[in-house]
């Protein structure tokens, strides 16, 4: 698979086959990709909390926001929730370069997941203090981002931005439609 094909497959998935488990070894492999990402001053300050435990997943779920443009949707229903989470955390005394470091690391992670046929959702809409308590993070540690993972239970299609849909994603049955601007629209200039 080419890099273009892989990047095109790496779309946000919000509904999963919750009963299809993801192993800690799989999560460890994805974090290995994340740790190899470039980072500011080579600090390597991000740490990862890997979650597959069903009880802990239940506690994490209500701390997450799922789809800002889908106002009437509260997130995936039971049975469609993530089978795993990877939570990026940092020690405030030894911070990473935000938002660059977590973004680079997360991109490596989600590309690796897509290569394995897994869907991901990188979540910034997080009740961080509440999640830190759920995870039992020590004082001075904070949540950066959460990556939800699972076998997709929906398809995701890239569509063109139109006057009707602009940049807001929408649903058509079990398809999550994601509008993207054209290449010509995003190139500011060519010399």
Write a compact overview of the structure shown.
This protein has 191 residues and is of the alpha+beta class. The protein has helices at 3-9, 24-35, 54-60, 100-115, 128-135, 183-186; strands at 47-51, 84-91, 119-123, 141-150, 155-160, 170-172, 175-180.
Explain how this protein is built.
The protein is α+β, with helices and mostly antiparallel strands and 191 residues long. Helix content is 28%, strand content 23%. The protein contains six helices and seven strands, in the order ααβαβαβαββββα. The strands form two sheets. Strands 1-2-4-3 form a four-stranded antiparallel β-sheet, sandwiched between helices. Helix 2 (24-35) crosses helix 4 (100-115). The two termini are 32 Å apart. The model has no long low-confidence stretch (mean pLDDT 94).
